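Subject: design request, 409 residues
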């Protein structure tokens, strides 16, 4: 059986970016609509998703892990593992056979888009929530996403996994476990069996909760047992505070690869993302994305995508409500001071490498065709050279424009 026949093909390049992206419907005529209509339409920006390098890497990693996880099902080893799980439920010691070499952890700051990247990748990989195999009959949930309990109760986590499996497939794992008052050890065996039969990848979101709970170490340690006896890949997603807990458990650390992501740096990709969001304007007057606005957006967001969207949405909402009807430095500053000031603590805690660079490192705006460097007019570069008081040759080299110095003396 070819598992690739049951999931979408692996996309790449522009096709992958197109499928990962989520854009809201927009028509410039909305700018002449009533205040109520524009404010309602403005809120749709929160539903946008703009793929980044992180989105692409997570997509590929999840895709490959799913294929490998599915290929383990219906093998002689999986049948042996099912028997071992059955014996463990009856009281015998657990014996893991399959392991979980595809498991990994995704870490990064809050709001950089980890959960959104995972969600978009899952939607592209598995358009259907269930893989249904006719002969022999079997139903598999490609990705099961579960939130880590705030109190890090292992039993609560296991019961939630069973509840979600029952919810999607109509099985009775949870009912039977509650009816028999199953212990935690028995639940691990039940969840492992359910995972082997019906789950491709288990995603544990908000895993950083283990850092704030006395049950955290116990939960992390027990997950090793679950990985070994389920034979599926388990993906952890959360902030970097989970890393010390994983490093402290060698058995878990050697099974995981860490994909760590930082907020966007201040470069052309940041400008490109701002430019896309800036296209969706609901104020009566249309504004252009200037160097000053780009710099201010970075200063307040520190490269955090969710904050960038919030700034642009709130700036427009404020401008519409007060009658200014344009996105400007003033409306962005006002929106931050009045509505997003709670982010001051977040900004002050960021590493200095995320500070806005000096003028000497400012980038040229991306042209309409990013692959056509000739669209950077020489006259524009000369103007920037004078404004920034930087030598023209240095600036040309900065933008990968070939320069050859010739001695005419």
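Subject: RE: design request

Done. Sequence follows.
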């Amino acid at each position: 059986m070819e598992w690739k026949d049951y999931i979408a093909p692996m996309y790449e390049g522009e096709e992958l970016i197109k499928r990962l992206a989520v854009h809201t419907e927009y028509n410039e005529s909305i700018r002449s609509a009533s205040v109520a209509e524009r404010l309602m339409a403005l809120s749709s920006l929160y539903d946008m998703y703009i793929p980044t390098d992180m989105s692409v890497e997570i997509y590929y990693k999840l895709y490959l892990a799913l294929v490998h996880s599915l290929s383990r099902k219906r093998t002689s080893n999986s049948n042996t593992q099912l028997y071992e799980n059955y014996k463990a439920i009856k009281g015998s010691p657990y014996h893991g056979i399959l392991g979980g070499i595809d498991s990994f952890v995704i870490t990064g700051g809050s709001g950089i888009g980890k959960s959104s990247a995972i969600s978009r990748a899952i939607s592209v990989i598995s358009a259907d929530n269930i893989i249904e195999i006719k002969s022999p009959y079997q139903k598999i949930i490609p990705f099961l996403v579960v939130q880590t309990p705030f109190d890090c109760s292992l039993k609560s986590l296991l019961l939630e996994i069973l509840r979600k499996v029952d919810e999607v497939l109509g099985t009775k794992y949870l009912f039977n476990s509650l009816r028999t008052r199953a212990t935690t050890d028995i639940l691990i065996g039940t969840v492992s069996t359910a995972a082997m039969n019906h789950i491709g990848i288990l995603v544990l979101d908000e895993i950083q909760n283990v850092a704030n709970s006395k049950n955290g170490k116990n939960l992390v340690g027990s997950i090793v047992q679950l990985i070994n006896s389920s034979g599926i890949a388990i993906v952890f997603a959360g902030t970097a505070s989970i890393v010390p807990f994983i490093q402290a458990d060698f058995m878990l650390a050697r099974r995981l690869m860490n994909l760590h992501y930082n907020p966007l740096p201040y470069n052309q990709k940041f400008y490109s993302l701002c430019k896309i969001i800036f296209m969706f304007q609901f104020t009566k007057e249309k504004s252009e994305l200037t160097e000053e606005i780009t710099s201010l957006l970075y200063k307040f967001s520190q490269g955090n995508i969710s904050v960038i969207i919030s700034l642009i949405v709130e700036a427009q909402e404020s401008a519409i409500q007060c009658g200014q009807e344009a996105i400007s430095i003033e409306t962005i500053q006002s929106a931050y001071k009045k509505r997003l000031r709670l982010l001051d603590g977040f900004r002050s805690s960021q590493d200095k490498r995320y500070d806005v660079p000096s003028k000497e490192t400012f980038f040229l705006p991306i042209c309409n065709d990013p692959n056509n460097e000739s669209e950077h007019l020489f006259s524009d570069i000369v103007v920037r050279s004078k404004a920034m008081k930087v030598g023209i040759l240095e600036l040309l080299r900065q933008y990968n424009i070939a320069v050859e110095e010739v001695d005419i003396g």
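The first strand starts at residue 104 and ends at 108.
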